[in-house]
Amino acid sequence: MPFSLWLSLAAVCAMGAMSPGPSLALVLRHTLGGGRLPGVAAALAHALGVGFYALLTVWGLGALIVRFPMLFQAITWGGAAYLAWLGIKALRAGRGGALDAAAMVTSRRQAAREGMLVALGNPKLILFFIALLSQFVTPDMSLAAKALVVLTAMVIDGGWYVLVAVGLSHSRVLPWLQARAHWLNRITGVLLLALALRVVAGPIA
Description:
By secondary structure, the chain is an all-alpha fold. It contains nine helices and no strands. The N and C termini lie close together (11 Å).
């Protein structure tokens, strides 16, 4: 995979990881309730779940492109519609959303278990990844390239939520984020809508 194409992949994976939702709320809760280590445990376990869905998606996309091109196109547009819905939801979130997560008493084991369950228990991730990875997967893609796609999704997802957990372990960070939540939601919403349009436009060359 050319480096420029990988940079595009990394950018869309980062956009997916940073979008507000239950995953962010989970890491917030465990970090606020147990400190840095439970938050990091939730982040890493969530990344494993994301990697599992990314692996399923990459394996299935190549075959789907070859055997059922029209079905693949319809699913891709469905994924784009889902991205657009997430973008509109973020724009309408205002100052609330995932940043209002309440603290809970927690442990590293509980945080890891819930991090994995939130990822695996969210079948919408399949649709999300189809929308994202359809831009990069081809029928003749090598095993190494597929592995790179999966690892990129895992590392970026885990890395982002680890940064969230580490940042939130400092007491001054959360009030700063909460005060600017409406701007964070608006920026995320605009970027998700732009990504939906990019998916509809076709594969990234």
